[in-house]
Every structure is written in C-alpha cells, then in structure tokens.
Design brief:
This protein has 408 residues and is α/β, with parallel strands linked by helices. It has 2 domains: 21-310, Aldolase class I (TIM Barrel), CATH 3.20.20; 319-407, Sandwich (Immunoglobulin-like). 30% of the residues lie in helices and 20% in strands. It is built from 14 helices and 16 strands. The protein has helices at residues 3-10, 37-40, 56-68, 71-74, 106-116, 142-151, 167-184, 194-198, 206-212, 226-238, 240-243, 267-279, 295-301, 304-310, and strands at residues 32-35, 78-80, 120-126, 156-160, 189-192, 215-217, 252-254, 284-286, 319-324, 327-333, 339-345, 353-358, 372-378, 382-387, 392-397, 402-407. An 8-stranded parallel sheet has the order 7-6-5-4-3-2-1-8. The protein has a 6-stranded antiparallel sheet with strand order 9-10-11-16-13-14, with helices on one face. α6 packs parallel to α7 (167-184). The longest helix has 18 residues, at 167-184. The structure holds 2-acetamido-2-deoxy-beta-D-glucopyranose (2 copies). The site of one 2-acetamido-2-deoxy-beta-D-glucopyranose has 4 residues, from α9. Residues 23-25, 182, 185, 187 line the site of one 2-acetamido-2-deoxy-beta-D-glucopyranose. Keywords: Disulfide bond, Glycoprotein, Glycosidase, Hydrolase, Lipid metabolism, Lysosome, Signal.
Length: 408
C-alpha cells in the first residue's frame, strides 16, 4: 500500500507518515520501556523510603525485573530515569552530576549495568534554567550536557520544558539540544515536551517538532486515575486532525505513561488504556512497580497481540471514527491492509452494553470488502472468523471497558 493512497482513504485525517522525521534512524516503532515518574515521583528520602526513592538501587531493581520477568522479551527495552536524579549543583567544570548519595556509582556505572542486562538507559533533563523539580536545567549548556550524556552512554533523553523563559527560547532550546545530540555521534532517542508547553499559546508547527524530536508530549502529566486516562483520549481525539498526520516511523505523539498495574484503574479501565495506547501508536512507557504487580496487569502489558498493534511497522496513528450513545470507535490502519479497531463503553453505570459494529463504518468502508478475518484481542483472545462488509458484529462491552479487534 502506498502512503498517498492511504491519505486519500482517510479523508479529513490526512496521514503523511514521518515524511520529515528526525533522521537519526531511531524509534521506527514507538519506544517501549519503563519510566519512573508517575509511580515514584520525586522521592529523594532514601532513609525513610529506601525501596522507592529515586536511586540507582531502584533502577537496578527494575532492570533485574525487566529481564527476569519477561518484560524485555515482550519489547520493553528502555529503562528511563525522570526528574530528581541530579545533584543540586553542576560540578566545577559545569558538568551535570548525579546526586552522590542516591547514585554513588554515577550514571555511567548505572548505564553499564543496564546495558549488561541487554536494556537501554533513558535520562531526563529540561530545556530551561531549572527542571520542573528545581534541579539544574540545560539552558546555556546544551552541547556540554549532550556530550555528558553521550559519554555516560545514555540511549534516550526525555527533555522537559519547565522554566523555559520565552517561547523563542523554548523552541530554540529544543532545536539546539536535538542538534547537540546529533553532534555527539551517539544514537540517542529524543523525547520532547515542546508542544505541551506551546499548546493554547500559539499554533504548534508539528512539521518542525517532528524534524527535531522522536516523540513529543501534547498534554499534561497522566495520573493514576480513570479520569486522567479518559482526559487523554478526549484531548487526543479533539485535535486528531493535527496529531495523526505527523505520526509515523521516527515521530510519535506521546500521550504519556501506561499506569496499568498501579492503584487507580479497574481491570476494565486497564484494558481500555492498553487498547487505546496501542491504537494511538503511543510510546509504551510503563510507570509501575515491576517488583509488585498483579499477574493480570502483567499479562495485559505483555500481551503480544496487543503490542503488535502498537508496534505495527506501518506506523500509522489511530483515530476516532465514531462517537455516539456513550460509545467510541477508534481504528488504526495496519500493514498489508489490516485494521485494528477498538470500541469503548463510556456509560459508567449498569451492565455490559451491546454495540452492533457495522464493518462498513470503518476505514472509509474499505475494510472487509470481500471478507476478512476478525480476531478479538481484548479483553480476551477470541477468533470470530470470517465476516464480510455487510456483517454486523455484536459486541458486549463492560462499563469503562474496551473491546479491541484486529481485522486481517
Ligand atoms: C545526524 O544527522 C544526520 C543527518 O540528518 C544523520 O544522517 C545522522 O544519522 C545523525 N546522527 C546521529 C548520531 O543521530
Ligand atoms: C513549519 O516548519 C517547517 C519546517 O521547519 C517550515 O518549512 C514551515 O514554514 C513552518 N510553518 C509555519 C507556518 O511556520
């Protein structure tokens, strides 16, 4: 299938995949891994909370879990540090340094450990004068900090936007850091928050964002709640004409972390987050405690059928095609003319509700023209078999739950 043909099919959502994406050859499918923020925040008191404080111990524990518990095999490869790893000051040569008490071995030693386990290491900095939690930011030191990360053999940089100064400084800082990372010669995935800080203030030039970043956040931080997951879906679909066209291999919209396996989401809501993050071609960055996670959440996060929707090599971001009567239908074109479809029930009361999915509703009526094979991936795997364009698929969907299908 050619991209031009696809963009005709999509009509209003014109999809021109990664046409001018950042040319570092990285993140050709959405990055997968683990990021500390949502679950571990900025806990720096290791005396009071030794197991959960932001320290090399936490990351070494997670690295061990990622390898021994099947996460790496499932595709979760990037182990990512968020804010609060830094010392309060740069060193005498203006170089960044990790907090010496919590990271006694320094970041290079941690990177060596992570690499020895077959994983990759992500780190965090900020385009402004200070990080969001008040640690030294990169403004004025873009080249030096990029070199430092390359010397430490870091593989991904999440670059926040707090304390950026003016919008010109924000944009310029992101451009400069992207160029600085390239100059190091090391392959480092560049995860930006540029659009998040511009949204509502000026029109975001996504063409340019995609030229400098491998992924970018558009909305505020996710939290461990159904309200937050719903808000991401609502915000994403509201501006899908803006977001969907720019996604593709090397360039991804980032709706923020998977909070599956924590405290806030019911089973059905966890299914909804997993299904929709797959449909949205989102980076799959879990933020949870891999040392303490239920078998159900683990199986959901490691579901290879769902992950293959997210990691589909076509790299198309899915979008909402239907919303009525508290149901939403989203679809995501897959390679070789296949399609992933989700149906979510937002009626948060009562029993499972019936939805009759008309196959002709989907993909501008191009799907299942003769006949196609329908498989349900979530909430549990089931083969429906062959259906044709005139079929109606009868689905029963739990309140705040989702059914995820693939059509081949
Ligand atoms: C730097 O950019 C050039 C040109 O876009 C690209 O060919 C090269 O692979 C990049 N190098 C790194 C390390 O990202
Ligand atoms: C957006 O950025 C692209 C690439 O840098 C540039 O060619 C284009 O003119 C910009 N568009 C606007 C409206 O500024």
């Amino acid at each position: 299938m050619t991209f031009a043909w696809l963009s005709v099919l999509l009509g209003s959502v014109v999809w021109l995949p990664g046409a001018r994406s950042l040319q570092n050859g990285l993140a050709l499918t959405p990055p997968m891994g683990w990021l500390h923020w949502e679950r571990f925040l900025c806990e720096t008191n290791c005396e009071r909370n030794p197991k959960n404080c932001i320290s090399e111990r936490l990351f070494m524990d997670m690295a061990d879990q990622m390898v021994s518990e099947g996460w790496l095999d499932a595709g979760y490869r990037y182990l990512c540090i968020d804010d609060c790893w830094l010392d309060r000051e740069r060193d005498e040569n203006n170089r960044l340094q990790a907090d010496p008490v919590r990271f006694p071995g320094g970041i290079k030693k941690l990177a060596d450990y992570v690499h020895s386990r077959g994983l990759l290491l992500g780190i965090y900095q900020d385009v402004g004068t200070k990080t969001c939690e008040g640690f030294p930011g990169s403004q004025g030191y873009y080249d030096l900090d990029a070199q430092t990360f390359a010397e430490w053999e870091v593989d991904l940089l999440k670059f926040d936007g707090c304390n950026y100064g003016t919008l010109d400084q924000l944009e310029d800082g992101y451009r400069q850091m992207s160029v600085a990372l390239n100059r190091t010669g090391r392959k480092i995935v560049f995860s930006c928050e540029w659009p998040l800080y511009e949204r509502g203030i000026k029109k975001i030039n996504y063409t340019e964002v995609a030229e400098y970043c491998n992924s970018w956040r558009n909305f505020g931080d996710i939290s461990d709640s159904w309200g937050s997951v719903k808000a991401v879906m609502t915000l994403s679909s509201a501006v899908q004409e803006e977001l969907v066209p720019v996604a593709g291999p090397g360039s991804w919209n980032d709706p923020d972390m998977l909070v599956i396996g924590n405290f806030g989401l019911s089973w059905n809501q966890q299914v909804t987050q997993m299904a929709l993050w797959a449909i949205m071609a989102a980076p799959l960055m879990m933020s949870n405690d891999l040392r303490d996670i239920s078998a159900e959440s683990k199986a959901l996060l490691q579901d290879k059928h769902v992950i293959s929707i997210n990691q589909d090599p076509l790299g198309a971001q899915g979008y909402r095609v239907f919303k009525a009567d508290n149901f939403e239908v989203w679809e995501k074109p897959l390679i070789k003319g296949s399609l992933a479809v989700s149906v979510t029930n937002f009626y948060e009361i009562g029993s499972p509700r019936n939805f009759l999915l008309s196959l002709s509703l989907l993909w501008k009526k191009r799907v299942c023209r003769n006949s196609c094979f329908i498989t349900r991936l979530l909430p549990s795997y089931h083969k429906y078999g062959h259906l044709n364009d005139n079929s109606l698929l009868s689905l029963w969907i739990n309140p705040s739950g989702t059914i995820l299908l693939r059509m081949d």
